[in-house]
């Protein structure tokens, strides 16, 4: 039996009259790479924010890493990592300072943090860049560092919000290698993306339309169900029916 | 706590990395003190005076000599006719024209009523006022000297004493003013900009997802500026005492404690601004136009509040700088103790709490 790390049931979020997330129900299992797809405005970000403990849902249930999103959001925050579409390191701090800062706010003990920082810098092949300002590095490197710091404290789940936006295909491929590696270590990866080739890399994919989950399956079964060749067609098929625009 | 410390450390790294800003933050108070201390002095020294003397007798020469001798005036020009007066002012050759009518000496000795006309260049009203006052005082002194011995039957003797600042040094006025402005600028503007920057960069989101409490994030962002404000404060006080020779009449610990309170006021104002706006430009604009300008105008530092129309006087009460300015000048210049500034202190404290409460409330609402 697979261990469930995220569980939601009829999770709903309303802003006034507007139902951003409409009774979504799904489970995510340990070590899985879970693709969370949807057009802009479909409710992805809102759902993700609820799961990260940033927003309180209107109704329904959700548990992340075994903690309730209503009452235990502080505990959730300790057990998740997060990387956003916006670049999430400080440009005017060095690589080392950035890693130490993010490790620090997750309460990693100082001596341990030092070891981890050095280990990470070595693993990323950034020994010579360790004391350079992050702002001077190319975007692809920044994204890699960003991802590494997001999982530095060994979270149970890492949330990636369009992590590869604006990155070249080779770096994207390398980035996904890092994601696989994390998933092999048992870290659950919850990722949103607009690249359909990336959707193919996921173990399972859900597609949100108008706040609800329109499809949830592994990519190959999903393609079979819709009788199409690639995920792009699946997505278009579903998104065409959307009522909400941008 | 450890988390908190690593955050504060990061803030200091930010601050020290940005050398240019550091230079500005530390250089600004020094610069302002020097500018106000030496360039913008409102004391009137060595003003040029033109003389139009129709009598040219012994008495007028003595008066002229007396004026010239004083450190406030230098006689630069002798005029021949009234038509030259305007010309002198237009060319800026004199701030004051002294006119003696004919037979000045005779009138003075025989009828006991001689006239002197003083004409000031009121295109700069403050200065001309001061100049006229100085000149009148000199002439009055001179008169007393001559007639001092022969007592008049009736006499009202006016004796003036300028309390707390007998030499009328302008540093007594502007040092508290500069302190107020600098703290306001640093506290409100820098804090709000640095927090809004995190929002703009998208790093705020990362911080909010971390186990750090949002309030902690904001507080630890304010701490480096608290330290910096205090450093600047000390810098200003050192300059006041050692460069501008302005003693601190009251208790230094009290002054520092009250300043700390004001720094907290400005920081919470900065937090409030940052909780409302989303871009650095807007934060800067609000703190400059919305807070620095009123701070300048309503602190009583440049313009006396008593001279303002009633509605503006009422408005001035909600400007925190007014109260801090009053506290600082009470302590530094008048040497008053805590008993005299309780009202101001309570008001500042109240404002701080209101700003802080509003900021926290606003901050939480945004997250929900």
Mean pLDDT of chain B: 84
Assign the structural class of chain B, choosing from mainly alpha, mainly beta, alpha/beta, alpha+beta, or little secondary structure: alpha/beta
How many H/I helices of chain B?
A: 14
Q: What is the count of β-strands of chain B?
A: 4
CATH architecture of chain A: 3-Layer(aba) Sandwich
The coarse overall form of chain B would be: elongated
Strand arrangement, major sheet of chain A? 6-7-8-3-9-10
Structural class of chain A: alpha/beta
Largest interface: A-B, 32 and 24 residues
Q: What summary fits the major beta sheet of chain B? A: 4 strands, mixed
Classify the oligomer: heterodimer
Count the DSSP helices of chain A: 9
Order of helices and strands of chain A: EEEHEEHEHHHEHEHEEHH
CATH superfamily of chain A: P-loop containing nucleotide triphosphate hydrolases
Sequence of strands across the biggest β-sheet of chain B: 2-1-3-4
| Sheet of most strands of chain A | 6 strands, mixed
Regions of chain B with pLDDT < 50 over 5+ consecutive residues? Answer: none
* Overall form of chain A: globular
CATH class of chain A: Alpha Beta
- Rg over C-alpha atoms of chain B, rounded to the nearest angstrom: 27 Å
> How much of the sequence of chain B is in beta strands?
5-15%
Explain what the structure shows.
The complex is a heterodimer of chains A (246) and B (368). Chain A has 246 residues and is of the alpha/beta class. Chain A has a single domain, classed as P-loop containing nucleotide triphosphate hydrolases (Rossmann fold, 3-Layer(aba) Sandwich), CATH 3.40.50.300. In chain A, 37% of the residues lie in helices and 26% in strands. In chain A, the strands form two sheets. Chain A has a six-stranded mixed β-sheet, with helices on both faces. The longest helix of chain A has 16 residues. In chain A, 44% of the residues are buried. Chain B has 368 residues and is of the alpha/beta class. Chain B has two domains: 238 residues, no CATH class; 101 residues, 3-Layer(aba) Sandwich (abc type-2 transporter like fold), CATH 3.40.1710. Chain B has 14 helices and four strands. A four-stranded mixed β-sheet of chain B has the order 2-1-3-4, with helices on both faces. In chain B, α3 links the parallel β1 and β2. The longest helix of chain B is centred in the middle third of the chain and has 31 residues. The interface between A and B is medium-sized, with 32 and 24 residues.
């Amino acid at each position: 039996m697979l261990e469930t790390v995220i569980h939601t049931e009829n999770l709903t979020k309303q802003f006034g009259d507007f139902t951003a997330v409409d009774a979504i129900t799904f489970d995510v299992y340990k070590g899985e790479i879970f693709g969370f797809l949807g057009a802009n405005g479909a409710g992805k970000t809102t759902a993700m924010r609820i799961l990260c403990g940033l927003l309180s849902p209107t109704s329904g249930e959700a548990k992340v890493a075994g903690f309730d999103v209503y009452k235990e959001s502080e505990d959730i925050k300790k057990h998740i990592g997060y990387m956003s579409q916006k670049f999430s390191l400080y440009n005017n701090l060095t690589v080392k300072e950035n890693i130490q800062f993010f490790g620090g706010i997750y309460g990693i003990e100082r001596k341990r943090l030092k070891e981890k920082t050095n280990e990470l810098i070595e693993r990323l092949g950034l020994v010579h860049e360790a004391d350079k300002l992050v702002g001077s590095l190319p975007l692809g490197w920044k994204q890699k560092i960003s991802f590494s710091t997001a999982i530095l404290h060994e979270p149970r789940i890492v949330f990636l919000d369009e992590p590869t936006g604006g990155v070249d295909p080779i770096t994207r491929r390398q980035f996904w290698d890092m994601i696989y590696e994390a998933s092999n270590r048992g870290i659950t990866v919850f990722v949103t993306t607009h690249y359909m080739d990336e959707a193919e890399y996921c173990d399972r994919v859900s597609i949100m339309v108008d706040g609800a989950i329109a499809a949830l399956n592994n990519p190959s079964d999903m393609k079979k169900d819709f009788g199409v060749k690639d995920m792009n067609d699946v997505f278009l098929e579903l998104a065409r029916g959307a009522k909400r625009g941008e | 706590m450890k988390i908190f410390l690593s955050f504060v450390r990061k803030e200091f790294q930010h601050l020290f990395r940005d050398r240019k800003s550091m230079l500005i933050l530390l250089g600004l108070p020094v610069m302002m003190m020097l500018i106000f201390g030496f360039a913008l002095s409102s004391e009137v020294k060595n003003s040029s005076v033109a003389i139009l003397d129709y009598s040219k007798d012994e008495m007028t020469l003595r008066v002229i000599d007396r004026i010239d001798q004083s450190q406030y005036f230098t006689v630069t020009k002798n005029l021949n006719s009234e038509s030259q007066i305007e010309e002198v002012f237009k060319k800026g050759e004199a701030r004051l024209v002294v006119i003696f009518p004919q037979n000045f000496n005779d009138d003075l000795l025989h009828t006991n009523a001689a006239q002197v006309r003083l004409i000031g260049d009121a295109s700069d009203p403050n200065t001309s006022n001061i100049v006229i006052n100085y000149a009148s005082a000199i002439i009055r002194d001179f008169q007393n000297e001559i007639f001092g011995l022969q007592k008049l039957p009736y006499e009202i003797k006016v004796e003036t004493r300028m309390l707390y600042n007998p030499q009328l040094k302008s540093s007594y006025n502007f040092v508290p003013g500069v302190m107020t402005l600098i703290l306001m600028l640093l506290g409100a503007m820098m804090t709000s900009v640095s927090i809004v920057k995190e929002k703009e960069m998208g790093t705020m989101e990362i911080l909010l997802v971390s186990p750090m409490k949002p309030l902690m994030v904001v507080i630890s962002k304010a701490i480096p500026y608290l330290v910096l404000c205090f450093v600047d404060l000390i810098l200003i006080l050192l300059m006041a005492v050692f460069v501008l020779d302005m003693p601190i009449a009251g208790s230094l610990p009290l002054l520092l404690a009250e300043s700390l309170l004001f720094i907290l006021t400005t920081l919470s104002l900065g937090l409030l601004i940052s909780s409302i706006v989303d871009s650095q430009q807007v934060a800067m604009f609000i703190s400059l136009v919305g807070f620095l300008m009123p701070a300048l105008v309503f602190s009583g530092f440049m313009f006396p509040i008593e001279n303002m129309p009633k509605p503006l006087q009422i408005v001035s009460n909600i400007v925190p700088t007014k109260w801090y300015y009053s506290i600082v000048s009470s302590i530094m210049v008048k040497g008053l103790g805590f008993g005299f500034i309780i009202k101001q202190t309570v008001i500042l404290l109240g404002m701080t709490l209101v700003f802080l409460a509003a900021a926290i409330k606003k901050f939480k609402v945004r997250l929900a």
